[in-house]
C-alpha cells in the first residue's frame, strides 16, 4: 500500500471510528473531517439534546491531541479563554498562565451564550492563529481546530454571532434528529456502557498535519476553478442576496472541495465535490434581504438552488491527473 492510499484510509478510519458513537450521522462526520483536513473550523447549530457535544467529544477523543473544552456563559471574560499574566511574588515577575484556547482541538460549547467581547477574543485566535494577552502576542499551536456549538438564535439568553465571526467558520451545519432505526441502535449501545468512554485515539497531531499536506496537493482543473467562480458570482448577482460570497469564502470553498475529494479517495476534484460541500461552506456567508427573510429563505437552500442553475463542466480526460 503506497503512502497516499494509506493516508486516504486514515481519514476513512476516523469517520468509521466516530460513527461507533454518533449513529447515523456519517455525512455530518464527513463534513467535520473536511474542515479538519482543510485547516478550517466548524459551527454546529441545532436544538439541545441531539448530540452536538457528544459528536465533538468523539472527534476529539479519536485524535491524540491536546483537547480543551470551553463552556461559554454570559459572565465569561476574554481572559478566561485566552489566559492571563499573574504576578509571581517569589520570582518578582509576571508569569503567563495559558487559557483553554491554547490547545489543539477546542470545543467551544454554546458559543452564542457569551458576550460579543468574549466572542471577539475567540475570533482573533481563529482568524490570526494567535491571541494577544496584556499586549503580548502568543502563537497558537500549528494544529488549532475549533468545533463550536450553538443553539438557535431565537433561544433565550443567546447572542447572534456577528457576520465577521460566522465567516471564520469553514463549515456550518446542523445534525437533526436521528431516524427511528438509528435511535434504537443508540439505545442498545448505551444500555451497557457509554460508547464515548471506549473511544481511543487512532490519529496523532502529526497524522493530521501530514493529511493536510496531502489535501493541499489535490488537483483542481481550470474547468473546476471556473465552475467554482460561476457559483460564487451567482451569489453576488442574486436578487434575494444583499451581500454575496467574499473572496475569503471562495478560498474556503476551494479548500473544502480539495478535502472532500481526498476523503472520497481521489487526488483530483470533480463537480460532485462542489455540490457536496458548497451549501455548508457558503450558506452562512450570505446576507439575505428582507424579502428572502420574510419568505423564510436561508442561505443553505439558496446555494442549493443556485447549484441547480450552474452549468456543470465536462471533465476532459487530460484535466484529471
Automatic annotation (TrEMBL):
Residues 41-171 form the ATPase AAA-3 domain. CDD domains: AAA (cd00009). Residues 234-301 form the ChlI/MoxR AAA lid domain. This is AAA family ATPase. InterPro entries: ATPase_AAA-3, CbbQ/NirQ/NorQ/GpvN, ChlI/MoxR_AAA_lid, P-loop_NTPase. PANTHER family: METHANOL DEHYDROGENASE REGULATOR, MOXR FAMILY PROTEIN. SUPFAM superfamilies: P-loop containing nucleoside triphosphate hydrolases. It comes from the Bacteria.
